[in-house]
Amino acid sequence: MGFSIGGKKLVCPHCQGTEFRTGKALLDSRLPSYLGLDWLCEQARIYACESCGHIMWFAKKAQVAHVETSDEMACLSCGTMIPPGETACRQCGWTYVT
Fold first, then answer.
1. Which of 4, 7, 17, 66 has a 20 to 30 Å separation from 60 between CA atoms?
2. What's the CA gap between 45 and 23, in Å, rounded?
3. pTM score > 0.85 for this model?
4. CATH of domain 2-67
């Protein structure tokens, strides 16, 4: 299973991986942690790519949904998913072929 955030399938911008480990990270300084006040701090959800380890951060309020993974790849220009077997983005025309 993969993830979708903000209506777009989550794809690693480095290796185009679609499998991620998830976790949370604090966005505030060390002082609240030192005082034991972590519960007051802003948090972000992090996604670490299982393939290459690239980490992406998203605000806590992001809508997260599980989606089935496929062989689709994200366009590196606009993020639109490119179906298997196609080499160009239908949205912007960007291509993986050089």
1. 17
2. 6
3. no
4. 2.20.25
